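To assess whether the prediction recovers the assembly geometry, we first specified each molecular entity separately, as shown.
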Amino acid sequence: MISMIWDEEFETMPREALESLQAYRLRKTAERVYATVPFYKESFDRAKFHPSQIKSVDDLRRLPFTHKEDLRDNYPFGLFTLPLHEVVRIHASSGTTGKPTVVGYTRRDIETWSTLMARTLSCAGVQKGDVVQNAYGYGLFTGGLGFHYGSERLGATVIPISGGNTKRQIMLMEDFGSTVLTCTPSYALTIAEAMDEMQVTKDRLKLRIGIFGAEPWSQNMRLQVENKLGIDAVDIYGLSEVIGPGVSVECIEAKNGLHIFEDHFIPEVIDPVTGDTLPYGEEGELVFTTVTKEAFPVIRYRTRDITRLNQEPCRCGRTHLRMERITGRTDDMLIIRGINLFPSQIESLLMNINGLEPHYQIVVKREGTLDTMEVRIEVNESVFSDEIKNLEALEKKIENECKESLGVAAQIKLVEPKTLQRFEGKAQRVIDERKI
Amino acid sequence: MKVEQISIFMENKAGRLAQITRVLGDAGVNILALSLADTADFGILRILVNENDSALSALKDCGFTVGKNEVLAVDVPDRPGGLAEFLEVLNVNEINIEYMYAYRKGAHAILIFRFDDLDKAIDTLSGTEFKVLTADELYSL
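The predicted structure of the complete assembly is given in tokenized form:
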């Protein structure tokens, strides 16, 4: 499978030229926010930093960080560089606590975003002539409209079905001959499962590519979705604070790390505790600085996503750095008896056990002063047995794996199929019942 | 000589057994024998029924995890010491029982066995007074 490079000039730019472009754009952005956004002026001044000091892209690490709390403190429009009448679109991320974080786009920002999404789709192997079933949610969430504009820019046929109504998704997928499915990976699995129930086999569909993101997933989950739907499944990454989807995506050639569109977004990986920038290849918190956005640029925005950066050249020809699939977030990190743990670690452990499917739930409780973790997992036919001892051995095996590879004691609870919640958007795998 | 058994995964939840038997009843399936093995969290219901295919598809349609496997049905003399004699034969021949259940029909005491080695059990029992029943024989008793 070969993808077409949408913006050959920028996507294959030699490193040196790319870095001087980044430095130029970074300085412009820093000047812009310093002059127009009081929050940035104050934070730069506090750090005794002036935009005129930016000579190269390495000067970035002297700038102060921006946190999600800063966005909330400046709710709703306090970090916009322009008055609202220059802003043509508002998006907001679902705030699980308190107020949402609000972002704005000028007409040119929408142009930039559409082009980046066309790049993204192209990188994932989508072409003019493809039928894109866009099952990301439309609305304040950036997923739906981001893919929508990108598909139109690319010249593909977009079906703005949004998330949910799984049976109708499958019906239209078959009737309209959808070739590309875009949604969260957990929803892709929900669709695959519903296909089984409706007895729609994958050969009745024309699907060939899935672009899945908005939540962490594992390589084994990729293989399952690919197998069940008969597609190439590609990982995409983005967040509304940076632009939405269209920050980075895997190329269909390698499916090994997500190319970050570095001519627009400068990535760093930092130690989340010290704030120090880490060398390529080390795992840490991903930080982004946008260098082309007008209405809502961000400077060193702390994503709380954990990954590492890879500068190895990719066989697709793109020169942009790749980030590894997100392995967790600094804030969905569970701390169980002092051990840091991401739900994705448990997922990949479960997926390494033959026959298990990624339908699981993690329940954290506090009994007395001790934290306990229960992992509920659905029993399917491939792991089921008529003998108690075999199922107990399966439980024991998962327990041992948790103990050995994660250092956490977990109680495994086998549950009946389809009793755990299914997701149409981001999966909520963890129930934390601790009252701390 | 082997008889097909259906097993069903169930969580230990109130009313679960009633739901399963209702599904089977509505599918017109009659249960000949059953046993329930359980742990603190889950159980495995094992059943012999008159209509395996209808039972399997009805249970799957209702979302249950089901499996099928083979067991042996043995007609053991219904008198004091009958079972003991039978088990001694197994013991002498080193045949291990994974689990068993039993019921009585007329003058017949029927034992359903899951052995670690079904074929060895069949060989051992052939020519003894303990008759291994075929599915047809079992259902026509």
